[in-house]
Amino acid sequence: MMRSNIENLLITCITEHKENVYRLAYSYVKNAEDALDIIQESIQKAFESLDKLKNPASMKSWFYRIVVNTSLDFLRKQKRIQVADEETLEFYGQASDDVYQNIDLEIAMDDLPPIYRSVIVLRYFEDLKIDEIAKVLNENLSTIKTRLYQGLRMLRVKMDDEMMQEVQ
């Protein structure tokens, strides 16, 4: 396939999945400007390494992997905790009438180690299948299934603890 055709496929992929890619980056950095920087850097990396893409049919998972890796690199460089601002909390609150439930979930998600958070975000927020997540994260299928199960269990324990504290 000619490079210009592959570039056009990449542009189409980025355009079609821009909201999902933004949400994915945001789920790591919890800051709108940083998420946009990560997306910009990811797009640049994707264009620079297009010749390394072996199968154009797997472009979406390949690009998601670039976004995940760029997000993790960013976090390694930052080594700091981001505090959500009012605007962010309002943005998430608009999705549902039960704002507190969403904030509890978001706080619980933030407390998860990144390897579990990545799998849960890709599965439930980006609606990827287990095998697609394995490609994005460059892990085998059983590892992803285990991390998903453990991550959900950790979330459940965390949410149950918070619910119990509210009751008392």
TrEMBL record:
InterPro entries, per the entry: RNA_pol_sigma-70-like (IPR039425), RNA_pol_sigma-70_dom (IPR014284), RNA_pol_sigma70_r2 (IPR007627), RNA_pol_sigma70_r4_t2 (IPR013249), RNA_pol_sigma_r2 (IPR013325), RNA_pol_sigma_r3/r4-like (IPR013324), WH-like_DNA-bd_sf (IPR036388)
Q: Which family does it belong to?
A: Belongs to the sigma-70 factor family. ECF subfamily.
Keywords attached to this entry: Sigma factor, Transcription, Transcription regulation
**Pfam entry (one):** Sigma70_r2
Provide the RNA polymerase sigma factor 70 region 4 type domain boundaries.
108-155
- Gene3D superfamilies on file: 1.10.1740.10, Winged helix-like DNA-binding domain superfamily/Winged helix DNA-binding domain (1.10.10.10)
Gene source species: Paenibacillus planticolens
What NCBIfam families does the database record attribute to this sequence? Answer: sigma70-ECF (TIGR02937)
Positions of the RNA polymerase sigma-70 region domain: 14-80
What is the protein name given in its UniProt record? Sigma-70 family RNA polymerase sigma factor
